Known about the structure:
By secondary structure, this protein is mostly helical. The chain has helices spanning 2-20, 30-72. The longest helix has 43 residues, at 30-72.
Amino acid sequence: MKSFLGTFVICFILSYVFLFFGGILIFENLWGIIALVALVVSVLITAFVNQDTKIEELEARIKVLESQIKTKE
Length: 73
């Protein structure tokens, strides 16, 4: 959850900067759009980061299992 909030804040700030330099002309409610965009982007980023962490843990487990198999042979 802590990493999600950090990602959300970063996405919120980047969205604000983007909308401040021209995006505000497109949308009427600045804060609502910023929060929505930051939420969507931060959910996607958090999902990818969590997948990366799980993949690394699985790779470590596979290496341990492979080393155990090699020692038995």
